[in-house]
Write a structure and sequence with these properties.
two-stranded antiparallel ribbon, 480 residues, 64% helix, single chain, mainly alpha
C-alpha cells in the first residue's frame, strides 16, 4: 500500500513538472516569440549536427568531425551554402537527404517557423506573436506598438501568409523539379540520378542555398542554358520574399494594387540584377580565367548568371578566386544587400537599401518626409534600416578581422567569404574550406547571425519593449 502511495506521488510529481514545463513553453511562444524562434533554430542546428556526425551520414562510413558537422548544420539550416567539406563526395545518400530536409526547414524562416510551432503548442497565436509574425514578414515591422495600416501583412492575414509560405514552397519546388528533369537528361545525367538531382537542385535554387549533389557542381551544366535559367528563376522566386509572392498571388499584374513593399522589392531587385550584370560584364570581359575565353553571348549570359547568384543564389560556374579584385568588391556589395525581406535570401535586404536611398534623395531635395508611390515612409522604418546596416557592417567587420588574424589569408578573399556567410549566399573564393576549427566557429556564428537577422536577434535579447511617456529637451549635435 505504501509502495503504491509512493509511486502515485512520484507520478503526480512528474506530471506536475511536465505540465509546468509545457505551460512555460507555451507562455514563451506568446510572450517572447523572437527568443523562442532563436531557440528553435539553435535546437535544429544541434539536432542536425548530431545527425551529420553519424557514420551513416558520411560516404566513407566514418563519423564526421564536430566542427565540420556543426558548420554543415548551420549552413544547411541557415540556407547559406558554404561548406568546409566537399558536399558532393563527403556525404552519403542519407547525408544528402539530411541536407535536403534541412534547407527546406530553414527556408521557412525564423519567425514563420516559430509562429507555426507556437500555434501547435499554444493552440492559438497571441497578439504579440501575431505582431512579431506580421513584422518579420514585411519591413514595416511592429515596434512595440500597434500595426500600421500601411503594413504589407495585417493581423488577419497572418494565417493566410503562413499557408502561402508552405504552399508556395511546395508548388514552386515541384514545378522547378519537373522542368529540370528533362534538362538534366539532356546534359547526360542518367534517368535514375536525375530523379534525385532534379528536386535537389530545385530546393537549392528556391531556398537560395547553392549546394550541388555531384562532385563537379554546375560544371556539367556550364553550357546548358536551360538548366542555368531555371536555377536563376528559382533563385529569383526565393529571393523576392513570401510577402511579395503573397501580393503577386492576390493581385497578379495589377501593379497599382501592389503594396509599397512589393513595389520596392521588385524594382530594386530588377535594378540590381541588370546593374550587377553590366558591371561584371565590364570588369571581366577580358579576364582569360573567367569570361575572356567566351563569345559575346556566353559572356553576357554568364554575367547575368553571376549577378543573380551574388544576390544570394550561391551557384557558380566560374571560379570566384579567379575574379578580378574589383569584381570581388562588386560581388561583396551585391551579397551584402541580398534579397527581399522574409525570403530565403539573406543580407540587409533590398527594401532596406531602397528606404535608405529614398531617405538620402529626400534629404538632398530638402523634403520634410520620405515618400514613394504616393505613400509616406515613417521615421521608425528609416531607423530600422539604419540599424540593420550598422549591425550588419559591424558583424562583417568583426568577423573579417578575426578570421584574417587567425588564417593570415588575403583580406579581400576573407571579406568575400565572410559577407557570403553573413548574407547566406554560399559563394566562396576557397578560403572557407581551408579554415581551422577556431575560424570555422567564427564563420558559423556569422552565418547564424546573418540568417536570424540583426533586428530579430536584438529583439530576442531585449525580450520586452519599453514605452517612454516623456520626451527630453532637443539639442542638435554637429553632423558631417
Amino acid at each position: 500500500m505504501t509502495g503504491d502511495t509512493v509511486g502515485a506521488r512520484a507520478w503526480r510529481s512528474m506530471r506536475s513538472v511536465l505540465a509546468e514545463s509545457w505551460d512555460r513553453l507555451r507562455d514563451l511562444t506568446t510572450a517572447s516569440p523572437s527568443r523562442f524562434a532563436v531557440g528553435v533554430f539553435l535546437t535544429l542546428i544541434l539536432l542536425f549536427t548530431a545527425l551529420f556526425m553519424l557514420p551513416a551520414a558520411a560516404a566513407d562510413g566514418q563519423s564526421t568531425a564536430f566542427a565540420d558537422a556543426l558548420f554543415t548544420a548551420v549552413s544547411t539550416i541557415c540556407v547559406t551554402g558554404l561548406s568546409t567539406v566537399d558536399m558532393g563526395t563527403h556525404w552519403s545518400p542519407f547525408g544528402h537527404v539530411l541536407v535536403y530536409i534541412g534547407v527546406n526547414v530553414g527556408a521557412l524562416g525564423v519567425l514563420t517557423l516559430a509562429s507555426i510551432l507556437g500555434l501547435v503548442i499554444s493552440k492559438r497565436l497571441g497578439l504579440r506573436a501575431k505582431l512579431i509574425a506580421a513584422g518579420d514578414t514585411n519591413p514595416l515591422r511592429a515596434h512595440g506598438g500597434p500595426v500600421n495600416e500601411g503594413q504589407t501583412v495585417r493581423l488577419g492575414e497572418v494565417g493566410q501568409l503562413l499557408a502561402t509560405v508552405a504552399l508556395s514552397t511546395l508548388v514552386i519546388e515541384a514545378g522547378l523539379a519537373i522542368l529540370l528533369y528533362p534538362s538534366l537528361l539532356l546534359s547526360g545525367i542518367d534517368p535514375i540520378s536525375a530523379l534525385w538531382e532534379a528536386p535537389y537542385y530545385a530546393a537549392m535554387s528556391f531556398t537560395n542555398t547553392g549546394f550541388a549533389p555531384n562532385a563537379g557542381g554546375l560544371e556539367p551544366f556550364a553550357q546548358n542554358y536551360v538548366v542555368l535559367t531555371l536555377l536563376m528563376a528559382g533563385v529569383f522566386l526565393g529571393s523576392i520574399g513570401f510577402p511579395v509572392i503573397f501580393t503577386l498571388w492576390r493581385h497578379h499584374f495589377h501593379v497599382r494594387r501592389w503594396s509599397l513593399h512589393a513595389k520596392l522589392t521588385v524594382i530594386t531587385t530588377v535594378v540590381l540584377f541588370f546593374a550587377g550584370a553590366g558591371v561584371f560584364l565590364l570588369l571581366e570581359y577580358d579576364n582569360p580565367e573567367t569570361f575572356g575565353g567566351m563569345d559575346a553571348w556566353d559572356t553576357t549570359f554568364q554575367a547575368f548568371f553571376l549577378s543573380a547568384m551574388t544576390r544570394s543564389g550561391g551557384f557558380s560556374v566560374v571560379d570566384m578566386s579567379e575574379l578580378h579584385g574589383s569584381s570581388l568588391v562588386v560581388g561583396s556589395m551585391l551579397m551584402f544587400v541580398g534579397g527581399g525581406s522574409a525570403s530565403t535570401a539573406g543580407g540587409i535586404k533590398v527594401t532596406t537599401l531602397a528606404v535608405l536611398a529614398l531617405a538620402v534623395w529626400s534629404e538632398a531635395k530638402g523634403r520634410p518626409s520620405v515618400e514613394a508611390f504616393g505613400r509616406r515612409i515613417p521615421s521608425d522604418v528609416q531607423r530600422v534600416a539604419l540599424s540593420v546596416v550598422a549591425w550588419g557592417a559591424t558583424i562583417v567587420a568583426l568577423s573579417t578581422v578575426t578570421i584574417t588574424q587567425i588564417t593570415q589569408q588575403p583580406v579581400e578573399y576573407v571579406l568575400f567569404d565572410v559577407i557570403s556567410g553573413f548574407a547566406t549566399v554560399g559563394l566562396s573564393t576557397g578560403v572557407t574550406q581551408q579554415l581551422p576549427d577556431s575560424a570555422v566557429y567564427v564563420m558559423a556564428l556569422t552565418m547564424f547571425m546573418g540568417r536570424v537577422g540583426t533586428v530579430t536577434l536584438a529583439a530576442a535579447v531585449a525580450a520586452t519593449s519599453r514605452s517612454q511617456h516623456y520626451s527630453l529637451p532637443v539639442e542638435r549635435p554637429i553632423v558631417g
